[in-house]
Amino acid sequence: MVVCGFAALAACSGSGAAPTTEGGTVSVLTYNVSGLPQEVNQTNPRVNIPLISPLLNAYDVVLTQEDYDWWRGLADLTDFVHFHEQLRAQATHPYRSPAHPGLEGVGLDLTARPDVQVGDGLGVLSRYPLRGNERIPWSGCYGGWNGGDQGAFDCLAVKGFLRSTLILADGVEVDLYLLHAESGGSDTDQQLQAEDFQELGDYMERNSGGRAVLVAGDTNLHTDPTHPEAAGLGDTAIWTDFLNRLGLSDACAVTSCEPDDSEDKIAYRNGDDVELSATTYEVPSSRFRDAEGKGLSDHEPVVVRLHWQAR
User: Fold this and answer.
1) What sign does the dihedral 247-252-253-259 (CA atoms) show?
2) What is the mean pLDDT of the chain?
3) Cα–Cα distance between 292 and 251 in angstroms, integer?
């Protein structure tokens, strides 16, 4: 992990980055790695997480969800505690997000979230310097230990978003927002999903005005209205309203990718100092499979290549 101490201050501040060039291309992977404990997982993370690790090196910026690096209680009794280090073990990216700071570090305590067992599961690996590691939990959640509430166990994790700044070159910065939104298909979940994106939008307006922005992660929004958890056009409305409010472009729509219903999305916008444009959108499913052809996660990887141009 790159630590912003005295020896690494130049790299972390951006003053050690390469001189500003006219532009370049950066590849971005977002991937929910299904890093929940083996005992409650639909996939096989004990085997699959180490297989995923070297595959990450093909991408400049790797954004992971369900990549837990903070936990409490029963998790200590399982192999789960090794998944995060195994995921990063063969990755060669020099810049890495530090661990989740725990409940106190994000302004929560057990009276507010008595069921919580793990952090937000958000992680960043980058070949470009990073500045900042703000973790903001959603204000609400629905779904505890009782799976009968149809809440998808959301309150067992400190779901929310991570904000960092990606430094592409001197004077060329992009505010990075990595998220994992409320899941589940109940009316309560639908309301919380809308609130999540309202909260993220509020935060971005306060903190990223005039700046280039990259938003990625597991939105848990199904923009195919035929999906059973799409609430008709409900999820589509949440996502479209969010994009329009912040002036964001969905990378899938920009590149005319084949229509799909991926919850895993990447969006972006230009800033005062840099222009961004998506050049390719890819779902490299075949790379992220085991010897039997089974996916290494219950999500598909999404890769977008962005061209950046200094203004």
Assistant:
1) negative
2) 90
3) 31
Superfamily of 20-310 according to CATH: Endonuclease/exonuclease/phosphatase (3.60.10.10)
H helix intervals, the chain: 9-13, 45-55, 83-88, 102-105, 187-207, 234-246, 251-254
User: Under a CB-based contact definition with an 8 Å cutoff, are residues 52 and 301 in contact?
Assistant: no
pTM above 0.85, yes or no: yes
Reading the block at residue 10, the tokens are: 């130049």
C-alpha torsion 103→164→127→251, nearest 10: 110
CA 66 vs CA 62, 70, 133: distances in Å: 13, 11, 17
pLDDT digits (tens, 9 = 90+) for 214-258: 999 999 999 888 888 888 889 999 999 999 999 999 999 999 887
The values of phi and psi at residue 249, to 5°, are -115, 130
Query: Measured over all CA atoms, what is the biggest interatomic distance in the chain, rounded to whole angstroms?
Result: 56
Which residues, 6 or more positions from 197, have their beta carbon under 8 angstroms from its beta carbon?
A: 181, 238, 239, 241, 242
Pairwise CA distance, residues 218 & 220, whole Å: 6
Q: Which residues pair with 250 in a beta bridge?
A: 267
Amino acid at site 293? G
Relative orientation angle of helices 234-246 and 187-207, to the nearest 10 degrees: 0
